[in-house]
Write a structure and sequence with these properties.
The chain has about 290 residues and is mainly alpha-helical. Helix content is about 70%, strand content about 0%.
Length: about 290
Amino acid sequence: MTPTPVRQEYEVQLEPLLSVPLERNLPLAQRLWQHGWLRKAVILVVIAVLWEAIARYQGNDLLLPTFLQTAAALWDGLISGELPAKVGVSLVILLKGYLLGIVLAFGLTSLAVSTQLGRDLLGTLTSMFNPLPAIALLPLALLWFGLGDNSLIFVLVHSVLWALALNTYAGFLGVSETLRMAGRNYGLKGLRLVLHILVPAALPSILSGLKIGWAFAWRTLIAAELVFGASSGKGGLGWYIFQNRNELYTDKVFAGLAVVILIGLLVEGLVFNTLERLTVRRWGMQR
């Protein structure tokens, strides 16, 4: 039998591809524009300029203060320590209600993926209470818990619990049966199956629920403080806005609203985006 001839190896020298410009050859402005933080900063600057122009054209500080007046009021509130104190009061209450809502949502969802009774319970409770605005429960909370932080924590738990439970449960349902079978082959069941298999696989949905729960909780707290006022002799950021509205300090009202927005942006950018980058994006589960 004649052996198959062996083809001689050869190497082809490729010419450099000069027709496509590399990133380092791009103009400086185009390279800078590729950064997301810079594009968002430009959007904020445009909004500030439009705000200043509209306020100056309107010419009534009581209705719409200028951006510079609001910035001055914000700076004065920060320097005096009044705004940081109000923010601290609100954030302490918010974290208590948010963490308690996370614990209850995880427990309810774990029960739902483990038993048929848990699934029926989750479906019934979410159908009943998820459409109910959290702020509508504030009168009952005041009746049950009195004038104190517990009333605010109660409405915060309601605003976090159902959104997070629904997103987490939807993420658990989306876990492939192959992963579930692999976990069962290793002897995992019940809470161990949830922790080691379902939670990592459903993490994108869980993070989405955490972000939605955070947004609901933050705006619910501000609204509750506007209605509820000060608790235990201390008022939060919502109470700061309400007080200055009564005293017709519109620039301080806008400064308080600006702090609400800034805290939301910081939590979104520093906490949730970092958490996503370190987990689901790093693992290739999200773009």
